[in-house]
Amino acid sequence: MKADAKNVLTGAHYLDGNHACAEGGIAAGCRFFAGYPITPSTEIAERISQRFPLVGGLFIQMEDELASMAAILGASWGGVKSMSCTSGPGFSLMMENFGLGIMTETPCVLVNVQRGGPSTGLPTLPGQADMMQARWGSHGDYEVIALAPDSPQESFELTIHAFNLSEKYRMPVLIMTDECVGHMTEKVVIPPPEEIELIARRYTEKKPDEALPFELTDDLISPMLPVGKGYKFHVTGLTHDERGYPVINAEAQEKNVVRLMDKVNKHADDIIWLEESDVEDAEVVIIAYGISSRVVKPAIARAQKEGIKVGEVKMVTVWPFPEKRVKELASKVKALIMVEMNYGQVFLEMDRIVGGKCATYLAGHAGGTVHKPDDVYRIIKEAVK
Amino acid sequence: MTVETRQPPKEEHPMEKLLRMDRIPHIWCSTCGLGTTVTALATALAQLELDLDKVAVVSGIGCTGRVAGYMKLDSFHTTHGRAIPFALGLHIARPDMKVIVLSGDGDLISIGGNHFIHTARRNVDITVICVNNFIYAMTGGQVAPTTPITARAATAPHGNFEHPFNLPILAASSGATYVARWTALHVRRLTEAIKDAITKPGFSFVEVIAPCSTLYARLNRLGSGLDLMKFYHDNSIIRHGADMNEVDIDFQSKIVVGKFVDIEKPTYLDCINDGYKRVFGNRYQPYGGANGDH
Amino acid sequence: MATTEIRITGFGGQGVILCGHIIGKAAAIYNDQHATLTQSFGPEARGSACSAQVVVSTERVLYPYVTSPHILLAMSNDGYNTHKRHMAEGSILVCEKDLVKPDKRGKEGEVFAVPATRIAEELGRKIVLNIVMLGFFAAVTDLMPMEALRQSVESSVPTGTEELNLKAFDRGYEYGVALKEKTEIQV
């Protein structure tokens, strides 16, 4: 399926990450957006509100983030690709219905333009300290898919990719960008619509009296049932069976939760997207995501110039975590360095998986600005000592 | 010679079309007002002769929240308080469908209060039926924003001393185009009100005063569910178009019921479409939702 | 790799961010360079000190922030005072003549000043002060061809104001060319 030709702004633009993200949503076919203003994510909503009347979409500024997240789930079940964006405290408020989206397996995209926290923190400055909240922020056991763009161009591309993943795996997908990328303006090339590949929602081919909204399929991804077509199906946030009926016991819980987790874990190889450079004979490898994966590059170049064998793994997807690859690297390299704008969130996951097989370093700080290449360089030097 | 076999006619419960019979019996207590409310809703839908494929019901959490699970419609049991914004999204995606929210007073008015007033303000074309039993029943009888002053609840063991909400005036002042209140005793009138509400374009609201014998009646020594129904019988005053300042409910006071608001006002989607048409003219791509073409 | 760091400073409402946007866009879209624009602003919408940073390079910009600008484009004295200390040695100061008073404590090498407010007022709209600055900037720096900036102005200003803005740009540019010629003759 290709993008809708008349609504894609093909060409070269000078856009910030937030505007690019909005264009990515439009190109992906998003036609419902419910949001609540919060810095530094608001430009996404502003651009959408400006563009939607001309592309057949509907933007609504809801009363709060709780409502925004609930509304995009309702619209998605209604058959419209839907998204929202938020930052900081707004992300906390959305966690409740993000969980409903996970439980009811509802495709949608949620963008978190991360700022410094906790609480109101640094509304106008970047952070990457919501990464564990992205992973575990709603209550209960589940898996998530989270992407991290490093530029406006990637903000555009990854928003489309997020919609595709959300339809393919029938679940909400997170874009964990940050204030720096969101407010950074660069050239964004929007390709012609025929070059934008979209994954269409998979609906059941079965008749109403045979179809189940949470049918157990081989790939663990149940086709959706459409509303308004006589399927008269039931969807609940309670633990449920294939019919969508609540079943309140340990056995049903085990089945339901394990399937939700396996849906992501068993497709991890398909979902995980890493970009590696100079890793093959590296002694030390930097692992980073989003803006951090970009600002480490000058540090790597400087170290390489001095003959240090240092490579980089950029995680385009942060969740699910690239467990397999990190294990492989840990058995080959002297040290792995996690660079992130927090005090060790994804680092902890990396360290857990490394399990002592190599040294691990965290280049972390509390946010407010991106890493200075010099600081990363010093950690590289320490790691090769 | 022909052999004629005659099967006895298959007996069908009159509500079978509208209920998930494979989920009956339901979890509600006997004498709970939810049974009659669901009956009133089912009867209203049948009498309106709506295409039931095009009706969805959305609930929040609580005893009433379970209604969605028993209705044989596209049905969504959402999170606590969020039935209305979920329904808003569904309605916007499928404006051709009737979206009905059925939930309790705690769900809609306490945790969901903000959504309630804002969705009424926008005049979104959905129907909200609030079953008001004055208490949080599913969690064991805690105090609600509707609990009358002095009434006891699990978290107001000495009596509630906060002012409760007057739901009709809350709905009306927030912008609802249709507001009515009936008790679970007034089944026929309640059915008519639900029909009116579903038919009414815009945000329509029906409050159903319903007995909770297991908790509210027991904690307040009001007798059985039947006693409460008898109380409604003796103490309801039908006053259509009543001044809503005078429809507060005190503990065991008279209950003013009736149709309080029935006005015409452009709906949310009408306003949006008209507004953008004025601004953009032919360039406006009217929002058509998913058009059911999936 | 040739990289130029530029900081534009002024007070909110002067069009500081638009200035940065136009420079970045000129480089990235009309001159085949890489250009990353970042901005810093206080919570106030108007009146507060405000600055935009553009990094222009022949290669992809990896570190997005400006640390020691090679060019400081100043439209307010406050802005100049805040940022003068962080300029690169021998950098260029491009400033509004009546609003900014260079005080020798900055690290700037060359100083180019233009009475952009007066020129904008002559054109009837004080609001185009920032575009006059850009025209002047195009003349006194050799970051990119004037045409790239001019095209960027045309495609960035609100529809219907192109003519006025291009006039403002041209006036600033002419002033800059004249000034440069004079400077060169003096040298």
Describe the structure.
The complex is a heterotrimer of chains A (385), B (294) and C (187). Chain A has two domains: 5-195, Thiamin diphosphate (ThDP)-binding fold, Pyr/PP domains (Rossmann fold), CATH 3.40.50; 274-384, 3-Layer(aba) Sandwich (Rossmann fold), CATH 3.40.50.920. Chain A has 14 helices and 16 strands. Chain A has helices spanning 17-28, 42-51, 65-77, 88-103, 131-136, 152-169, 179-182, 250-265, 268-271, 291-295, 297-305, 323-330, 346-354, 373-384, and strands spanning 11-16, 32-35, 58-61, 82-86, 108-116, 122-126, 146-147, 172-178, 185-190, 234-236, 274-277, 284-289, 310-315, 317-319, 335-340, 359-364. In chain A, strand 7 (146-147), helix 6 and strand 8 form a beta-alpha-beta unit. Chain B has one domain: Thiamin diphosphate (ThDP)-binding fold, Pyr/PP domains (Rossmann fold), CATH 3.40.50. Chain B has helices spanning 34-48, 67-70, 83-93, 105-111, 113-122, 167-174, 187-199, 213-219, 225-235, 268-280, and strands at residues 55-59, 74-77, 98-104, 127-132, 135-136, 142-143, 178-183, 204-209, 236-238, 255-262. An eight-stranded mixed β-sheet of chain B has the order 2-1-3-4-8-7-10-9, sandwiched between helices. Chain C has a single domain (3-186), classed as Pyruvate-ferredoxin oxidoreductase, PFOR, domain III (Pyruvate-ferredoxin Oxidoreductase, domain 3). In chain C, 41% of the residues lie in helices and 23% in strands. Chain C has a six-stranded mixed β-sheet, with helices on both faces. In chain C, strand 2 (34-41) and strand 3 (49-57) form a beta hairpin. Chains in contact: A-B, A-C. At the A-B interface, helix 3, helix 4 and strand 10 of A face strand 2, helix 3, helix 5 and helix 10 of B.
